[in-house]
Design brief:
InterPro entries: PAS-like_dom_sf. This is Hemerythrin-like domain-containing protein. It holds the Pfam family PAS_10. The chain is α+β, with helices and mostly antiparallel strands and about 400 residues long. It has three domains: about 70 residues; about 170 residues; about 130 residues, 2-Layer Sandwich (Beta-Lactamase). It has 15 helices and seven strands. Helix 1 crosses helix 3, helix 1 crosses helix 4 and helix 7 crosses helix 9. The longest helix is centred in the middle third of the chain and has 36 residues.
Length: about 400
Protein backbone atom coordinates (compact mmCIF):
# COMPACT_ATOMS: atom_id res chain seq x y z
CA UNK A 1 0.00 0.00 0.00
CA UNK A 2 1.41 3.39 -0.98
CA UNK A 3 1.05 6.11 1.66
CA UNK A 4 -0.16 9.41 0.25
CA UNK A 5 0.70 12.50 2.29
CA UNK A 6 -1.47 15.57 1.75
CA UNK A 7 -0.37 19.11 2.56
CA UNK A 8 -2.59 20.18 5.46
CA UNK A 9 -2.94 23.78 4.27
CA UNK A 10 -4.03 22.69 0.80
CA UNK A 11 -6.47 20.20 2.29
CA UNK A 12 -7.92 22.84 4.61
CA UNK A 13 -8.44 25.17 1.65
CA UNK A 14 -10.25 22.45 -0.33
CA UNK A 15 -12.51 21.61 2.61
CA UNK A 16 -13.20 25.29 3.22
CA UNK A 17 -14.19 25.84 -0.41
CA UNK A 18 -16.44 22.78 -0.43
CA UNK A 19 -18.25 24.06 2.66
CA UNK A 20 -18.67 27.45 1.00
CA UNK A 21 -20.33 25.70 -1.95
CA UNK A 22 -22.76 24.07 0.48
CA UNK A 23 -24.02 27.56 1.31
CA UNK A 24 -24.65 28.31 -2.37
CA UNK A 25 -22.83 29.42 -5.56
CA UNK A 26 -19.47 31.07 -4.89
CA UNK A 27 -18.76 34.54 -6.27
CA UNK A 28 -15.96 34.85 -8.83
CA UNK A 29 -13.77 36.97 -6.57
CA UNK A 30 -13.98 34.34 -3.82
CA UNK A 31 -13.22 31.57 -6.31
CA UNK A 32 -10.05 33.43 -7.32
CA UNK A 33 -8.75 33.09 -3.75
CA UNK A 34 -8.87 29.30 -4.15
CA UNK A 35 -8.06 28.98 -7.84
CA UNK A 36 -4.47 27.77 -7.46
CA UNK A 37 -5.23 24.91 -5.08
CA UNK A 38 -8.42 23.94 -6.93
CA UNK A 39 -6.73 23.74 -10.32
CA UNK A 40 -3.80 21.71 -8.99
CA UNK A 41 -5.67 19.29 -6.71
CA UNK A 42 -5.18 15.59 -7.42
CA UNK A 43 -7.41 12.59 -6.80
CA UNK A 44 -6.10 11.84 -3.30
CA UNK A 45 -6.45 15.43 -2.09
CA UNK A 46 -9.95 15.67 -3.53
CA UNK A 47 -10.97 12.35 -1.99
CA UNK A 48 -9.62 13.32 1.42
CA UNK A 49 -11.46 16.65 1.32
CA UNK A 50 -14.68 14.88 0.37
CA UNK A 51 -14.19 12.37 3.16
CA UNK A 52 -13.68 15.05 5.81
CA UNK A 53 -16.98 16.67 4.86
CA UNK A 54 -19.17 13.72 3.88
CA UNK A 55 -18.41 11.45 6.84
CA UNK A 56 -20.09 14.09 9.03
CA UNK A 57 -23.03 14.69 6.67
CA UNK A 58 -26.45 13.94 8.15
CA UNK A 59 -28.29 14.35 4.83
CA UNK A 60 -26.41 13.02 1.81
CA UNK A 61 -28.93 14.48 -0.65
CA UNK A 62 -28.14 18.03 0.44
CA UNK A 63 -24.49 17.54 -0.59
CA UNK A 64 -25.11 16.30 -4.13
CA UNK A 65 -25.16 19.71 -5.81
CA UNK A 66 -22.29 21.25 -3.76
CA UNK A 67 -20.08 18.21 -4.45
CA UNK A 68 -20.92 18.33 -8.16
CA UNK A 69 -19.84 21.98 -8.26
CA UNK A 70 -16.72 21.16 -6.26
CA UNK A 71 -15.65 18.40 -8.64
CA UNK A 72 -16.16 20.70 -11.62
CA UNK A 73 -13.91 23.22 -9.87
CA UNK A 74 -11.11 20.66 -9.36
CA UNK A 75 -11.50 18.92 -12.73
CA UNK A 76 -8.43 20.59 -14.24
CA UNK A 77 -6.13 18.95 -11.71
CA UNK A 78 -7.95 15.62 -11.92
CA UNK A 79 -7.75 15.59 -15.72
CA UNK A 80 -4.02 16.36 -15.60
CA UNK A 81 -3.27 13.17 -13.63
CA UNK A 82 -2.51 10.01 -15.56
CA UNK A 83 -4.58 7.04 -14.34
CA UNK A 84 -2.69 4.06 -12.89
CA UNK A 85 -1.96 1.04 -15.07
CA UNK A 86 -4.39 -1.55 -13.75
CA UNK A 87 -3.29 -5.21 -13.95
CA UNK A 88 -5.00 -7.05 -16.80
CA UNK A 89 -7.75 -9.35 -15.59
CA UNK A 90 -7.90 -7.65 -12.18
CA UNK A 91 -10.91 -5.97 -10.60
CA UNK A 92 -10.00 -2.45 -11.69
CA UNK A 93 -9.31 -3.49 -15.28
CA UNK A 94 -12.67 -5.26 -15.40
CA UNK A 95 -14.48 -2.26 -13.91
CA UNK A 96 -12.80 0.04 -16.42
CA UNK A 97 -13.87 -2.25 -19.25
CA UNK A 98 -17.44 -1.98 -18.00
CA UNK A 99 -17.03 1.79 -17.84
CA UNK A 100 -16.01 1.87 -21.50
CA UNK A 101 -19.17 -0.03 -22.46
CA UNK A 102 -21.32 2.27 -20.32
CA UNK A 103 -19.65 5.31 -21.86
CA UNK A 104 -20.33 4.02 -25.37
CA UNK A 105 -24.02 3.54 -24.57
CA UNK A 106 -24.28 7.00 -22.99
CA UNK A 107 -22.63 8.52 -26.07
CA UNK A 108 -25.13 6.71 -28.30
CA UNK A 109 -28.00 8.11 -26.24
CA UNK A 110 -26.52 11.60 -26.46
CA UNK A 111 -26.11 11.31 -30.24
CA UNK A 112 -29.72 10.20 -30.61
CA UNK A 113 -30.89 13.07 -28.44
CA UNK A 114 -28.89 15.65 -30.41
CA UNK A 115 -30.08 14.16 -33.69
CA UNK A 116 -33.67 14.43 -32.54
CA UNK A 117 -33.25 18.06 -31.51
CA UNK A 118 -31.57 18.90 -34.81
CA UNK A 119 -34.38 17.43 -36.89
CA UNK A 120 -36.97 19.14 -34.70
CA UNK A 121 -35.34 22.51 -35.38
CA UNK A 122 -35.31 21.84 -39.14
CA UNK A 123 -38.96 20.73 -39.27
CA UNK A 124 -40.52 23.27 -36.96
CA UNK A 125 -41.31 22.83 -33.32
CA UNK A 126 -44.99 21.93 -33.76
CA UNK A 127 -45.14 20.29 -37.18
CA UNK A 128 -46.69 16.86 -37.66
CA UNK A 129 -43.38 15.58 -38.97
CA UNK A 130 -41.63 16.82 -35.84
CA UNK A 131 -44.13 15.06 -33.58
CA UNK A 132 -43.77 11.80 -35.54
CA UNK A 133 -39.99 11.98 -35.33
CA UNK A 134 -40.15 12.77 -31.61
CA UNK A 135 -42.27 9.66 -30.98
CA UNK A 136 -39.84 7.52 -32.97
CA UNK A 137 -36.96 8.88 -30.89
CA UNK A 138 -38.80 8.17 -27.66
CA UNK A 139 -39.50 4.59 -28.73
CA UNK A 140 -35.89 3.93 -29.71
CA UNK A 141 -34.47 5.47 -26.55
CA UNK A 142 -37.01 3.62 -24.41
CA UNK A 143 -35.90 0.32 -25.93
CA UNK A 144 -32.22 1.15 -25.41
CA UNK A 145 -32.77 2.10 -21.79
CA UNK A 146 -34.73 -1.09 -21.19
CA UNK A 147 -31.82 -3.14 -22.55
CA UNK A 148 -29.17 -1.14 -20.64
CA UNK A 149 -28.76 -3.74 -17.86
CA UNK A 150 -24.99 -3.31 -17.53
CA UNK A 151 -25.47 -0.14 -15.50
CA UNK A 152 -27.17 -1.94 -12.60
CA UNK A 153 -24.72 -4.85 -12.79
CA UNK A 154 -21.79 -2.43 -12.67
CA UNK A 155 -23.16 -0.54 -9.68
CA UNK A 156 -23.84 -3.78 -7.79
CA UNK A 157 -20.28 -4.88 -8.45
CA UNK A 158 -18.95 -1.63 -7.03
CA UNK A 159 -21.20 -1.95 -3.97
CA UNK A 160 -20.42 -5.61 -3.29
CA UNK A 161 -16.78 -5.92 -4.37
CA UNK A 162 -14.87 -2.63 -4.54
CA UNK A 163 -16.58 -0.61 -1.80
CA UNK A 164 -16.01 -3.26 0.93
CA UNK A 165 -12.32 -3.61 0.02
CA UNK A 166 -11.89 0.17 -0.05
CA UNK A 167 -13.55 0.57 3.35
CA UNK A 168 -11.30 -2.09 4.89
CA UNK A 169 -8.14 -0.54 3.42
CA UNK A 170 -8.70 3.20 3.84
CA UNK A 171 -10.27 5.41 6.47
CA UNK A 172 -11.00 8.04 3.80
CA UNK A 173 -14.02 6.39 2.22
CA UNK A 174 -16.74 8.97 2.90
CA UNK A 175 -17.36 9.38 -0.84
CA UNK A 176 -18.75 5.84 -1.04
CA UNK A 177 -22.07 6.75 0.61
CA UNK A 178 -22.62 9.65 -1.77
CA UNK A 179 -21.76 7.53 -4.81
CA UNK A 180 -24.18 4.83 -3.70
CA UNK A 181 -26.94 7.43 -3.29
CA UNK A 182 -26.25 8.79 -6.78
CA UNK A 183 -26.26 5.26 -8.21
CA UNK A 184 -29.73 4.81 -6.73
CA UNK A 185 -30.77 8.07 -8.40
CA UNK A 186 -29.54 6.88 -11.80
CA UNK A 187 -31.29 3.52 -11.55
CA UNK A 188 -34.51 5.19 -10.37
CA UNK A 189 -34.40 7.56 -13.36
CA UNK A 190 -33.75 4.65 -15.71
CA UNK A 191 -36.61 2.61 -14.25
CA UNK A 192 -38.94 5.60 -14.38
CA UNK A 193 -38.18 6.15 -18.05
CA UNK A 194 -39.05 2.59 -19.10
CA UNK A 195 -41.65 1.21 -16.70
CA UNK A 196 -45.41 1.23 -17.04
CA UNK A 197 -47.29 4.36 -15.87
CA UNK A 198 -47.83 4.61 -12.12
CA UNK A 199 -50.73 6.80 -10.99
CA UNK A 200 -50.69 8.24 -7.48
CA UNK A 201 -53.69 9.02 -5.26
CA UNK A 202 -54.03 12.45 -6.83
CA UNK A 203 -54.30 11.03 -10.31
CA UNK A 204 -50.83 12.18 -11.41
CA UNK A 205 -48.80 9.68 -13.44
CA UNK A 206 -45.06 9.18 -13.16
CA UNK A 207 -42.81 10.17 -16.05
CA UNK A 208 -41.95 7.19 -18.21
CA UNK A 209 -41.51 5.87 -21.72
CA UNK A 210 -45.11 4.66 -22.14
CA UNK A 211 -46.52 8.06 -21.25
CA UNK A 212 -44.03 9.84 -23.48
CA UNK A 213 -45.37 7.92 -26.47
CA UNK A 214 -48.67 9.79 -26.16
CA UNK A 215 -49.31 12.97 -28.09
CA UNK A 216 -49.07 15.17 -25.00
CA UNK A 217 -46.30 17.70 -25.63
CA UNK A 218 -45.83 18.45 -21.94
CA UNK A 219 -45.43 14.78 -21.11
CA UNK A 220 -42.80 14.31 -23.80
CA UNK A 221 -40.98 17.40 -22.57
CA UNK A 222 -40.77 15.88 -19.10
CA UNK A 223 -39.51 12.66 -20.64
CA UNK A 224 -36.63 14.48 -22.34
CA UNK A 225 -35.86 16.35 -19.13
CA UNK A 226 -35.74 13.09 -17.14
CA UNK A 227 -33.56 11.54 -19.84
CA UNK A 228 -31.17 14.48 -19.59
CA UNK A 229 -30.93 14.03 -15.81
CA UNK A 230 -30.23 10.32 -16.31
CA UNK A 231 -27.50 11.01 -18.86
CA UNK A 232 -25.83 13.73 -16.78
CA UNK A 233 -25.86 11.80 -13.49
CA UNK A 234 -24.64 8.53 -15.03
CA UNK A 235 -21.87 10.40 -16.85
CA UNK A 236 -20.91 12.26 -13.69
CA UNK A 237 -20.54 8.98 -11.79
CA UNK A 238 -18.43 7.57 -14.60
CA UNK A 239 -16.06 10.53 -14.30
CA UNK A 240 -15.78 10.23 -10.52
CA UNK A 241 -15.04 6.52 -10.72
CA UNK A 242 -12.24 7.00 -13.23
CA UNK A 243 -10.71 10.18 -11.86
CA UNK A 244 -11.13 9.75 -8.09
CA UNK A 245 -12.41 6.39 -6.84
CA UNK A 246 -10.28 3.99 -8.90
CA UNK A 247 -6.91 5.79 -8.53
CA UNK A 248 -7.38 6.25 -4.78
CA UNK A 249 -8.73 2.75 -4.10
CA UNK A 250 -6.08 1.12 -6.31
CA UNK A 251 -3.30 2.61 -4.20
CA UNK A 252 -5.07 1.97 -0.91
CA UNK A 253 -6.03 -1.70 -1.33
CA UNK A 254 -3.11 -4.15 -0.84
CA UNK A 255 -2.76 -6.82 -3.51
CA UNK A 256 -3.29 -9.62 -1.00
CA UNK A 257 -6.77 -8.26 -0.26
CA UNK A 258 -7.87 -9.07 -3.80
CA UNK A 259 -6.55 -12.61 -3.45
CA UNK A 260 -8.29 -12.97 -0.11
CA UNK A 261 -11.61 -11.91 -1.63
CA UNK A 262 -11.17 -14.25 -4.60
CA UNK A 263 -10.24 -17.22 -2.45
CA UNK A 264 -12.74 -16.69 0.37
CA UNK A 265 -15.28 -18.93 -1.27
CA UNK A 266 -12.73 -21.61 -2.20
CA UNK A 267 -11.72 -22.78 1.26
CA UNK A 268 -11.21 -26.54 1.40
CA UNK A 269 -11.19 -26.71 5.19
CA UNK A 270 -13.37 -29.58 6.40
CA UNK A 271 -15.28 -29.60 9.67
CA UNK A 272 -18.35 -31.11 11.31
CA UNK A 273 -21.27 -29.17 12.73
CA UNK A 274 -22.59 -31.15 15.69
CA UNK A 275 -25.58 -30.52 17.97
CA UNK A 276 -28.02 -32.60 20.03
CA UNK A 277 -30.26 -32.80 16.96
CA UNK A 278 -27.60 -34.20 14.63
CA UNK A 279 -24.40 -33.40 12.78
CA UNK A 280 -23.48 -32.18 9.31
CA UNK A 281 -20.29 -32.14 7.28
CA UNK A 282 -19.00 -29.16 5.32
CA UNK A 283 -20.39 -30.27 1.96
CA UNK A 284 -23.77 -31.12 3.44
CA UNK A 285 -24.05 -27.79 5.21
CA UNK A 286 -23.03 -25.84 2.10
CA UNK A 287 -25.56 -27.78 0.00
CA UNK A 288 -28.33 -27.01 2.50
CA UNK A 289 -27.63 -23.27 2.41
CA UNK A 290 -27.47 -23.29 -1.39
CA UNK A 291 -30.78 -25.15 -1.64
CA UNK A 292 -32.89 -23.34 0.95
CA UNK A 293 -35.52 -21.19 -0.84
CA UNK A 294 -34.42 -18.12 1.14
CA UNK A 295 -31.42 -15.79 1.28
CA UNK A 296 -29.75 -15.73 4.70
CA UNK A 297 -27.27 -13.21 6.09
CA UNK A 298 -25.87 -13.08 9.62
CA UNK A 299 -24.63 -9.86 11.21
CA UNK A 300 -22.59 -10.31 14.40
CA UNK A 301 -23.02 -8.36 17.62
CA UNK A 302 -20.40 -5.88 16.34
CA UNK A 303 -22.66 -4.99 13.36
CA UNK A 304 -20.33 -6.66 10.87
CA UNK A 305 -21.37 -9.24 8.28
CA UNK A 306 -20.13 -12.69 9.35
CA UNK A 307 -21.92 -14.96 6.89
CA UNK A 308 -24.28 -15.02 3.93
CA UNK A 309 -25.79 -17.88 1.95
CA UNK A 310 -25.25 -17.91 -1.79
CA UNK A 311 -28.12 -19.73 -3.53
CA UNK A 312 -28.45 -19.40 -7.31
CA UNK A 313 -31.71 -17.48 -6.86
CA UNK A 314 -30.29 -14.86 -4.46
CA UNK A 315 -32.46 -11.73 -4.50
CA UNK A 316 -29.89 -9.24 -3.20
CA UNK A 317 -26.41 -9.92 -4.67
CA UNK A 318 -23.47 -10.43 -2.31
CA UNK A 319 -19.74 -11.00 -2.82
CA UNK A 320 -17.13 -12.50 -0.44
CA UNK A 321 -15.65 -9.03 0.16
CA UNK A 322 -18.78 -8.12 2.13
CA UNK A 323 -17.74 -10.41 5.01
CA UNK A 324 -16.35 -8.23 7.79
CA UNK A 325 -18.05 -5.10 6.46
CA UNK A 326 -20.22 -2.93 8.70
CA UNK A 327 -23.84 -3.68 7.85
CA UNK A 328 -24.56 0.06 7.74
CA UNK A 329 -22.28 0.25 4.70
CA UNK A 330 -24.16 -2.58 2.97
CA UNK A 331 -27.33 -0.53 2.55
CA UNK A 332 -28.18 2.58 0.53
CA UNK A 333 -27.75 5.77 2.61
CA UNK A 334 -31.51 6.43 2.67
CA UNK A 335 -32.19 3.16 4.55
CA UNK A 336 -29.30 3.25 7.05
CA UNK A 337 -31.35 4.97 9.77
CA UNK A 338 -33.97 2.19 9.62
CA UNK A 339 -31.27 -0.50 9.82
CA UNK A 340 -29.67 1.16 12.83
CA UNK A 341 -33.03 1.44 14.59
CA UNK A 342 -33.70 -2.29 14.09
CA UNK A 343 -30.27 -3.20 15.47
CA UNK A 344 -30.72 -0.85 18.43
CA UNK A 345 -34.10 -2.36 19.32
CA UNK A 346 -32.67 -5.89 19.05
CA UNK A 347 -29.68 -5.08 21.26
CA UNK A 348 -31.71 -3.49 24.05
CA UNK A 349 -34.37 -6.20 23.94
CA UNK A 350 -37.27 -4.03 22.74
CA UNK A 351 -37.90 -6.32 19.77
CA UNK A 352 -36.94 -9.76 18.54
CA UNK A 353 -38.04 -9.44 14.90
CA UNK A 354 -38.94 -7.02 12.14
CA UNK A 355 -40.33 -7.54 8.67
CA UNK A 356 -40.75 -5.67 5.40
CA UNK A 357 -42.17 -6.51 2.00
CA UNK A 358 -41.92 -4.95 -1.42
CA UNK A 359 -42.70 -5.47 -5.10
CA UNK A 360 -39.77 -5.90 -7.48
CA UNK A 361 -40.02 -6.85 -11.17
CA UNK A 362 -43.37 -8.51 -10.60
CA UNK A 363 -42.15 -10.49 -7.57
CA UNK A 364 -43.36 -10.14 -3.97
CA UNK A 365 -40.25 -9.94 -1.77
CA UNK A 366 -40.58 -10.70 1.94
CA UNK A 367 -37.71 -9.63 4.24
CA UNK A 368 -37.44 -10.62 7.90
CA UNK A 369 -34.91 -9.75 10.60
CA UNK A 370 -34.47 -11.86 13.73
CA UNK A 371 -32.46 -11.13 16.88
CA UNK A 372 -30.31 -14.13 17.84
CA UNK A 373 -29.63 -14.63 21.56
CA UNK A 374 -27.85 -17.24 23.66
CA UNK A 375 -29.42 -19.29 26.46
CA UNK A 376 -28.98 -16.38 28.88
CA UNK A 377 -30.59 -13.90 26.49
CA UNK A 378 -27.39 -12.11 25.50
CA UNK A 379 -27.49 -10.63 22.01
CA UNK A 380 -25.41 -12.61 19.49
CA UNK A 381 -26.35 -10.84 16.28
CA UNK A 382 -29.05 -10.43 13.66
CA UNK A 383 -30.20 -12.84 10.97
CA UNK A 384 -31.72 -11.49 7.77
CA UNK A 385 -33.99 -13.83 5.78
CA UNK A 386 -35.31 -12.78 2.37
CA UNK A 387 -37.42 -14.71 -0.11
CA UNK A 388 -39.53 -14.35 -3.21
CA UNK A 389 -42.95 -15.19 -1.76
CA UNK A 390 -44.89 -14.77 -5.01
CA UNK A 391 -45.55 -18.50 -5.44
CA UNK A 392 -46.54 -18.97 -1.79
CA UNK A 393 -49.06 -16.12 -2.01
CA UNK A 394 -50.62 -17.69 -5.10
CA UNK A 395 -51.34 -21.06 -3.44
CA UNK A 396 -54.93 -22.00 -2.69
CA UNK A 397 -56.71 -25.04 -1.35
CA UNK A 398 -54.59 -28.09 -0.54
CA UNK A 399 -52.00 -30.37 -2.10
CA UNK A 400 -51.13 -33.30 0.19
CA UNK A 401 -48.57 -36.07 -0.06
CA UNK A 402 -51.37 -38.58 0.37
Amino acid sequence: MELIRTNSQRLSALVEYLRLLYQGPVAKEIFENYRQVLHSAGAHEVNEALDMVLREAADMDSWKVPVARFIRSVSRGLDAESPPEYPAGGLFAELEKENSSIEAELNALQARLLQSRGKSAEQGSHSGEERRHSLESVEEIGRRLGDFSLLKTHYQRLQNELFPLFEKSSSNHGCVSLMWSLQDDVLALQAGLVRKPVVDSGGAASMNYDLARTGDEGVRTRFWKALGAFYMTAGMLLYRERRILYPVAFRAIPEHMFGKARNAARSTESYNFSTLTGSLGTKELEAIFKTLPVDISFIGSDDRVKFYSDPPHRIFPRAPAVVGRLVQNCHPPKSVAVVEEILRSFKNGERDSAEFWLQSKGAFIHIQYFALRDAEGAYLGTMEVSQDASHIRSLDGEKRLL
